[in-house]
TrEMBL record:
The keyword Metal-binding belongs to this UniProt entry's keyword annotation: yes
UniProt KW keywords: Metal-binding
Species of the source: Dryococelus australis
InterPro entries assigned: HARBI1_dom
Pfam families documented for this protein: DDE_Tnp_4 (PF13359)
Entry keyword annotation includes Metal-binding: yes
Cofactors (names): a divalent metal cation
Protein name: DDE Tnp4 domain-containing protein
Origin: domain of life: Eukaryota
Amino acid sequence: MFAGRYTSRAVSYYLIGDEALPLLPYLMRPFPKRVLNNEKRMLNFRFSRGRKSVECAFGMLTFKFRVFDGPIACNEYCAEAIVKTACVLHNFARFLEESFQEPSNFAETNGAVPAMPGGSRLENTPTQSQAIRMRNRLGNYFLRQEGSIDIQWKYVGLP
C-alpha cells in the first residue's frame, strides 16, 4: 500500500520499454545489466513490474476480444476508440462478475495521483540528457518512502 502523501501536482507521463528500445524522455528503458548497483537494480525491477502488469492486462483483453490478435485494420482514431471501448467493456464485465476491485489505496486518495518530485510535462524535444535525468529522477523517487513498495526492498536485499 502507498504510504506517502498524495497531491494534485502533475506527474510526467512515460512509456516503459525493454532494452531493445532507445532511451527517450517519454520512453524509459531499464539500465543495462552489465553494471547494476542496488538503485539501478531496483529501478529495473519497478520497470519490469510495470511492463508485466500492462502485458497481463493486454493478455486479458486479447483473450476476451479477438480483434487484438493481430493488427487492427483501421485508422488511428478508430483504433483508439476500439481499445478504449474494449477496456470499458472488460471492466464492466468484471464488475458484473463481482471480480473487479479498485486498487487498495484508491478510496483513500479519491483517485489522486501521487506526486513525483519535479513532475512536469516533458518538452517535445527528446534529448538523451533529458531522458537520463528523467530516469534518474524516477530512480530517486522509487527509493523514497512515498515512491517505494515493500517488495522492492526484498528484491534488492535491503532492509
